[in-house]
Specification:
Blueprint: H1 13-46, E1 66-73, H2 76-88, E2 94-107, E3 110-124, H3 128-138, E4 146-151, H4 156-167
Antiparallel strand pairs: 1-3, 1-4, 2-3
């Protein structure tokens, strides 16, 4: 040994072949998985995203096609007026009014605390932009809260009813099935 190093060992052709054969069983599973990687990536890239997935067998409901929208109002009178109007206009199938919520928020640099009424509006996701426009046009707040979340799962007959009610003309019956 010179300078504290171990001497390099050069293997002849036969020894290198023997060594590679000994390591082959260990490397083969890794190599075969690496060869499959491009196929797996291509498969993942071509998959349908969850929001566009076909309905579960038998349910007929497409996840995300119905949304629950939330709107806060200053009082019950305003909330009822807006709720009735969005149902009459077929922008929603149903609106629940949740009274006496407390909202704490920052507005124009000041922390505010108010008693409000929360509207929970069930509608088709495709109607959320029209619902938002309508609420903004009649709401007394300078900036109306309108947020919507897609419904991924639920009682299939109810979700189908939401879609049916919001697709019908104004003269149709809207009773629950």
């Amino acid at each position: 040994m010179r300078g504290g190093r171990a001497p390099a060992v050069l293997l002849g052709g036969g020894a290198a072949l023997l060594l590679s054969l000994l390591w082959m069983p260990t490397l083969l599973p890794v190599a075969s998985r690496l060869l499959l990687l491009p196929r797996a990536l291509l498969s993942m890239a071509s998959e349908i995203p969850p929001s566009a997935a076909p309905p579960a067998s038998g349910s007929g409901y497409v996840p995300g096609s119905v949304s629950a929208a939330f709107v806060t109002c200053p009082n019950e009178k305003v909330a009822k007026e807006i709720a009735r109007a969005v149902v009459e206009k077929r922008l929603a199938a149903c609106v629940n009014l949740i009274p006496q919520i407390t909202s704490i928020y920052e507005w124009k640099g000041k922390i505010e605390e108010d008693s409000e009424v929360l509207m929970m509006i069930k509608t088709q996701s495709s109607l959320v932009p029209a619902l938002t426009d309508f609420v903004r046009s009649v709401h007394p707040y300078e900036v109306a809260e309108v947020i919507a979340l897609p419904v991924e799962q639920g009682n299939s007959p109810y979700l189908q009813w939401v879609r049916q009610v919001t697709e019908r003309g104004p003269d149709s019956s809207t009773a629950l099935p």
